Amino acid sequence: MKRKLRYVALFAISIIVSISMIGCGDDIVEEEVKPAAYNSVEPPEGTEIAVDDALQVEFDNPPKGVRVSMGTAITTDNTVRIGGGFDAGALELEITWDNASDGQGKKVLTYTVIAPDIEREVLIPAGEFQMGSDDEEANLNSPQGISDEQPIHTVYVDAFYMDAHEVTNVEYQEFLLENPQWQKADIEERFHDGAYLKEWSGNDYPRGKGYHPVTHVSWYTAMAYADWAGKRLPTEAEWEKAARGGLEQKKYPWGDTYDTNMVAHNVSDTQVVGKYPPNDYGLYDMAGNVDEWCLDEYIENFYFNSPERNPLAGEFTLEALSKHFTTLPNDPGHSRVFRGGSWFEGWGGPASKRCAWRGGAAIGYAGVHEDQGGFGGFRCVRCAN
């Protein structure tokens, strides 16, 4: 009993001590906030920068409450890193902070922002190539127990022009403004799965992503854009020939060894088109960034019966598809080919960045299951003649 009373007494004393300490905070001296003044910036003012460049701004003391008129600011000690994307053309970027010597500080930085040449096309020469692969990473999901990339077979493809870059948000916005029936608010429900332009606000793409590839687009909408542009989607054979860049039976557009410096993969989001090196044909992002729609119907065992010249999987001719694509029913029985793999690690991994990798999705798929950003986009081609 005495022991219990001793514990009670000690507990009471601790409470009294704690209460007596309340108010001692009046004696704590708050850390002095020194006034911060702008010192310098890299790259230097007045120079040219890319749309996805980052600016590094230095102050003499840590700035507080930093705000920028464009991009995203991250403050570490005396340094503020401002990340793009920036809009192409003349840039006046305003920085403000709260602890300047005379109150709120302000600095305006001026640059010229250079955008990728998104209108450039590349001529892909006519000729034969070996289509398909025996790669150990190939899909082994067919009833026959073999890959949908087999058998390797010789294919001849006529010459054609292919866009050097994937179609960007800037380009797709122009299409929408000229074609209200394909705008987010007016498009027919049968042409998508509810995720069409999921990250857009009306006809406005996400801020800072003008030169990122457009995502959350269905096969229908990609076809509509291509028709408006006077082009079309590539056939699967055209796409693979172009991706290989003239290299024979290599896994990736650059060779046989996976190289994270060559591909937008396992990053946080889509990247500005052209950020990574092109293949030997001069095509960018043929692996990674976004999966790309093709004309062909996805038929798992198509390679067993593929024509030798200009193959196109499915019951329709190229001309019929171009004229009547809106009449195809939006159901799982009419899936279309995806190629190239995306930026997202969980979407096929490095294996999907191989030239021979094949994927497929329903023609109305616009990314309804994609919560971390869109994975699918497209690029266009046109016949050389």
Quick overview:
The protein is of the alpha+beta class and 385 residues long. The protein has helices at residues 2-21, 169-178, 219-228, 236-244, 318-324, and strands at residues 38-42, 48-50, 54-59, 67-68, 72-76, 79-83, 89-100, 103-114, 121-124, 127-131, 153-157, 160-163, 291-297, 335-339, 359-362, 376-377, 381-383. The protein folds into two domains: 38-114, Immunoglobulin-like (Sandwich); 121-383, paralog of FGE (formylglycine-generating enzyme) (Alpha-Beta Complex).
Specify the CATH homologous superfamily of the largest domain: paralog of FGE (formylglycine-generating enzyme)
* Beta-strand content bin: 15-25%
**Number of distinct beta strands:** 17
CATH architecture of the largest domain: Alpha-Beta Complex
Unreliable stretches: 1-26
Q: What's the domain count?
A: 2
User: What portion of residues is helical?
Assistant: 10-25%
With strands numbered from the N-terminus, the spatial order across the biggest sheet is: 1-3-6-5
Sum up the overall morphology in one term.
elongated
Structural class: alpha+beta
* Topology pattern, helix = H, strand = E: HEEEEEEEEEEEEHHHEHEEEE
> Total number of helical segments?
5
Rg? 28 Å
| CATH class wording of the largest domain | Alpha Beta
User: Main β-sheet, in a few words?
Assistant: 4 strands, antiparallel
> How far is the first residue's CA from the last residue's CA?
103 Å
What is the fold-level CATH name, i.e. the topology of the largest domain? Answer: paralog of FGE (formylglycine-generating enzyme)
